[in-house]
Design a protein that fits this description.
The complex is a heterodimer of chains A (about 270) and B (about 100).
Chain A (H helix, E strand, L loop, with lengths): L36 H31 L4 H11 L2 H10 L6 H12 L2 H12 L4 H9 L3 H12 L6 H24 L14 H12 L7 H17 L4 H16 L18
Chain B lengths: L4 H27 L4 H7 L2 H16 L1 H18 L2 H18 L1
The chains are: A mainly alpha (about 270), B mainly alpha (about 100).
Chain lengths: ~270, ~100
């Protein structure tokens, strides 16, 4: 029987986020997964390059909010309680009084449906942590931090502190940047003129290319890209993310026999 | 520094929907028992989701977007550096738009 004792410590991060962070020691019998301060720092460091691009959209969001007549306090509430950049940008597009509440909420729903997939894919890693640590961390889960964390996971990382670090790095970039954009208001030109609208695509493409491991990636990725393109073309909203993700997942599951087992990242495998 | 009543309601509903998805996917996976086959398939899910995010947004950016993708691919292969890839990708798109 495999016995692996892991201790877990939630500590204050350098930036001093108190409140949800307190000391915690944990012992469990699950292999490999830990939660350490070093993990949090590794997450912050690994996500730092993306924080720059997130700060860019954050500033763009702030500008859009100001132009839509959303107050700084309302912008802050959106950031604190929604914290989903794409959905917030889409809401700014529709923000005119009287507010089309249902339309904004349905758009949010469609754009954020993809978050189901992100959360689901973190289960094998995070399930060893107690719920009181996982659920607050999930609130600040973003596409970028998730992608960095999962790339590290594929490379053998099992420290769940990294997930918190990645999430915090994105939050720290987004908050000041959107406030800055709001204060700057209309004095920023069109971000597309500088190619900044491509930042989102560039970041995800870079993570995809960087995460390529073997030809076994090609079939699920190809299926996902093809289905995502078709659904994006035919169906409004972000259903294409769900459809593509599911297509890739199905291909990966259905051809299990031919895949060498050592290539499968698995939280139950101890990491040396 | 004001919050309109309807803005507050909208933000609240957006927050509920968004958190339900963030937490819901994770929660749901704990309610079902996964076979090893399913669990190993899940390992390919992140790559598939990223592909699904990238492909339509690159197509939407048109020809400059495709050039930007190629730039990103080259940088990642050469230097495996996210920030450089971002700079070159955005730079390539910006340059292409100057010519088009």
């Amino acid at each position: 029987m495999q016995r692996c004792v892991w201790e877990s410590r939630l500590v204050e991060t350098a930036a001093g986020v108190n409140g949800m962070l307190e000391e915690a020691e944990m012992v469990t019998h699950q292999a490999g997964v830990t939660f350490t301060r070093q993990g949090v720092f590794r997450g912050l460091r690994a996500t730092a390059p993306l924080a720059i691009s997130v700060a860019t959209y954050g500033a763009v969001f702030g500008v859009l909010a100001k132009q839509a007549g959303v107050s700084l306090l309302e912008t802050t509430l959106l950031n604190l309680f929604v914290f989903a950049g794409a959905a917030q940008m889409a809401a700014m597009d529709q923000w005119a009084y009287p507010l089309p509440i249902m339309a904004i909420v349905i758009t949010t729903l469609l754009i954020n449906l993809r978050l189901i997939m992100l959360g689901a894919s973190m289960r094998p890693w995070m399930k060893y942590l107690p719920a009181w640590m996982v659920y607050p961390t999930l609130h600040i889960l973003s596409d970028e931090s998730w992608a960095v964390a999962m790339t590290e996971y594929r490379n053998g990382e099992r420290d769940a502190g990294l997930v918190l670090g990645c999430n915090l790095a994105i939050a720290f970039a987004w908050f000041p940047a959107s406030a800055f954009g709001h204060v700057l208001g209309g004095s920023i030109g069109d971000p597309a003129e500088l190619g900044l609208d491509f930042a989102f695509t560039a970041v995800f493409a870079a993570m995809l290319f960087g995460g390529y491991r073997s030809r076994f990636d090609l079939a699920p990725w190809g299926a996902s890209g093809l289905v995502a393109w078709l659904v994006w073309w035919l169906v409004p909203g972000t259903w294409y993310v769900i459809a593509g993700g599911l297509a890739g997942f199905l291909v990966a599951v259905l051809r299990t026999d031919e895949r060498p087992h050592h290539q499968i990242p698995d939280a139950t495998e101890p990491v040396s | 520094m004001t919050v309109h009543g309807s803005a507050f309601v909208t933000i609240f509903l957006m927050a509920v929907v968004t958190y339900a998805f963030r937490a819901g996917g994770y929660w749901m996976m704990g309610r079902v028992t996964l076979s090893p086959r399913m669990e190993s398939g899940l390992a390919y899910l992140p790559g598939a989701v990223i592909t699904a995010l990238v492909v339509p947004s690159a197509i939407e950016a048109g020809f400059p977007g495709i050039v930007g993708l190629v730039a990103v691919a080259i940088v990642m292969r050469r230097w495996n550096n996210l920030f450089l890839a971002l700079v070159f990708g955005i730079g390539a798109v910006w340059m292409m738009r100057q010519f088009m």
